[in-house]
Structures are given as structure tokens and as C-alpha cells.
Amino acid sequence: MEKIVSAKNERVKKWSKLKTKKGRVNSNQYILESWHLVSEAINANQNVEVILTTSKQYELHQTEVDSFDGEIIEITDDVSKVLGSTSTPQGIFGIVELPKEDHFDSLDMNGSWLLLDQIQDPGNIGTMVRTADAAGFDGVIFGEGTSSQFNPKVLRSMQGSQFHLKLLEGDLLDWIHKFKENDVPVYGTELNPEAVSYDQIEKQDAFALVMGNEGNGMQDKILDQTTKNLYIPIKGKAESLNVAIAAGIAMFHLKK
């Protein structure tokens, strides 16, 4: 097994840049951290090109790592700290080819989809993707202004659910137009005079649910294009619900 001991190694420098969007685009790769995520990617037939592991992590996962048919490289703790996105990285990483984007016109829209409108917080994104996975959704669409699905913090927060459903990116107005063309209702989330309580909508198989920015909610231009806007009645004195909590309530209620 090859061993890299210096954080100044050229390959290490290149891999470290995968924590940035520019680095990912230039290399057509992204980096996963933790054996849980790496193994999830392998099991989902993602193109994991390299596994990087400290000696300690290799001892913990030797049988599984040895069964990997790609390149395996041992790294030092110092290299791990350069590649990791936490103060105490676990010490095992996967270098993965960026997945090919699904063609816009080739997708079957008759399913349940979560649309993220300028959601910024990685923890909220991860919670919503995991909840969509648990609720049996077909996919999640990251709108413009939403944190990247390949951001290390977002990857860590999604905990592998990203490999269980489709994750797409694009202009939400284009997607909403496509849903409506296919007679799929699009529900926004906003408290306004025209909105209805979420529990007044029947469960269904095919629909899209849009969740808006943590502080500002959905953009007006997107609210104007929805089939109907929903709200969740607050019975106590809280001013509002966290966006991920609200998404969970709505997803489990709407999904048939």
C-alpha cells in the first residue's frame, strides 16, 4: 500500500481543494469523510476512485477496505487534518467522481420531490434530505442560492441519504414549470391570506414541496408560481418553526 506522509504532497494539495466548488469543478471529483459515507458511496455504486486512510482507521476497517478494488493509500494524521473539514477528522476519506447530472427532460416527474429555495444551513439541508429519504421521496432539488450538495458539511449532515434518492440542482422556476406541465401540484410554504393549513391537503403520490430560506422564506417569484401555499398552525407561543422541522411535518403528511 502506498503511503503519503507529507501534507505538502501534490496529490494532497489537489484533494484538499475538493472542499471548494472551484476545486471540485476543476477535478470533477469531491471528497467524502468517514467510513460510513465512503461505504455508503461504494454500496450505491458511486465511482469511488481512491480511499485514503490512517493506520488506525485501516485497522478498524481492514476487511472492508481490502475488498475495495480501487486505489488505497495510507496517510498520516497530519495529512488527515489537512483533508478533513472538522477539528478532529476521523482519518478515512474517499475521493469520488462527481456524478453525471440527469438530463432535465429525461426524468419522470410523477413522484414526490422536495425543492430547496436558498437554504443555507448545512444542518438544515442534511436533516431535510434524510427526512425526504425516510418519507419515501423520489428526490431533492437544490435551487440556486442553496448550499452545494458537495459541501463537506452538507455531505456529513446528509449521512448517506444522498445515495438513496436523486439529488439535482437547477433553477426552481424551470422545475416548477416542468412539474405543472405534467399536472403535478407544487406546494409552497408561506403564511399569507391565500395559504391553507397543511392538514387540509390530502395525501398523494405525485407532488413537489418547496421550502424557503431560513430567514426570508420563499422568494416571491417562486411563491407566485405554486399551485397552492401551505402553512403549519402554531398552537403555542413560538414565533416560528425551524425550516427542517416544518419540512418534516409537511413531507410525512403529504406523502401517500
Task: Give the structure's gist in a few sentences.
The protein is an alpha/beta fold and 256 residues long. It is built from eleven helices and twelve strands. The N and C termini lie far apart (50 Å).
Describe this protein's structure.
With about 260 residues, this protein is α/β, with parallel strands linked by helices. It has helices at about 10-15, 20-25, 35-45, 55-60, 60-65, 75-85, 120-135, 150-160, 170-180, 220-225, 245-255, and strands at about 1-5, 30-35, 50-55, 70-75, 90-95, 110-115, 140-145, 165-170, 185-190, 195, 205-210, 230.
Give the SSE layout.
Blueprint: E1 2-4, H1 10-16, H2 21-27, E2 29-33, H3 35-43, E3 48-53, H4 55-60, H5 62-66, E4 71-75, H6 77-83, E5 92-97, E6 112-117, H7 122-135, E7 139-143, H8 152-158, E8 166-170, H9 172-181, E9 186-189, E10 196-197, E11 207-212, H10 220-223, E12 228-231, H11 243-254
Parallel strand pairs: 1-4, 3-4, 6-7, 6-11, 7-8, 9-11, 9-12, 10-12
Antiparallel strand pairs: 2-5, 3-5
Helix pairs in contact: 7-8, 7-11
The overall strand count is 12
Rg over CA atoms: 20 Å
In round numbers, the mean pLDDT is 95
Name the beta content range: 15-25%
Helix content: 25-40%
What distance lies between the first and last C-alpha atoms, to the nearest angstrom? 50 Å
The class by helix and strand makeup works out as alpha/beta
Supply the number of helical segments.
Answer: 11
Q: Give the overall form.
A: elongated
How do the strands line up in the largest sheet? 8-7-6-11-9-12-10
For the biggest sheet, the summary is:
7 strands, parallel
Low-confidence stretches: none
Name the helix and strand elements from N-terminus to C-terminus, one letter apiece: EHHEHEHHEHEEHEHEHEEEHEH
Organism: Apilactobacillus nanyangensis
Family: Belongs to the class IV-like SAM-binding methyltransferase superfamily. RNA methyltransferase TrmH family.
GO molecular function, one term: methyltransferase activity
Domain RNA 2-O ribose methyltransferase substrate binding: 31-102
